[in-house]
Amino acid sequence: MSRKVYEFGPFRCDAAAGLLFRKGRRNPVHLTPKEAGVLLLLLENAGTLVEKEEFGKRVWPDIHLEIQLDNSLKRAISTLKKSLKQPQYIKTHSGRGYRFAAKVEVIGGRKGKPKLVVLPFQSLGRTRYPQGFLEGLTHDVTTQLGCLNPDELRVIASSTAAKYKKTRKRISRIGEELEVQYVLAGAVLGSGNKVRVSIQLIHAPDESQLWGKAYERKLDDILVFLREICQDIAREIEIKLVPLERERLDYLPQVNPEAYKSYIAGRNLWNKRTPESLREAISLFEQANKLDSSFARAHSALADSYAVMASQSWVS
Question: pTM for this one?
Answer without folding.
Answer: 0.53
